[in-house]
Design a protein that fits this description.
By secondary structure, the chain is mostly helical. The chain has three domains: 50 residues, no CATH class; 65 residues; 53 residues. Helix content is 69%, strand content 8%. The structure holds zinc ion (ZN) (2 copies).
Amino acid sequence: MAIKCFVSECAEDVTGQCPGLAEEPCGHFYCGSHSRGKLCDECAAVQEQQNLFQEYCTVAEDVYKVSPGLNILWGIMFGTFPLCIIGIVVESLWFFILIGVGSFALSIVIFLYIERQRKKRLLRACEKYENFEEFYGEYKKQANKAAMFSMIAKTMDFTSDMLSSDPVQASDVRRIRQRLERMD
Ligand SMILES: [Zn+2]
Ligand SMILES: [Zn+2]
């Protein structure tokens, strides 16, 4: 049996075999026009989606955390407040009242600052990445992997609609989408 390109309607010469992705071996034989690097078109598209997903996660983490140092500082300031309340009750010293009020006020200032930075970063990310606000909402809810993949699937539905005038490309997108779903 002659070795053929994995795209059924393709008659071009085979130039290699796809090793697949780390968690999903492939084995497709491909031609020059149905491959990218060492991967077949299909695996390359899945890889691209995975990379994009990783990028979204990294950006979402950056928006959510803002600054680990500031978060720790906020925790210390906010934690000092109840300690001072105890100090006020037990010792009734002005010293504790001053520190208590000071740390509480400072913790509010830091909190507001973090929130403002978060909004700025979110806005910037929304300008750059499609559907990022929804993605970030899901991220915040600490959505599981399945929910994240359904976000990607939704984006791909949109893409296949866009390409629907080209039936071959649209069916490629649907096939890749089905593979993504199986990876849940
Ligand atoms: Zn081909
Ligand atoms: Zn492949």
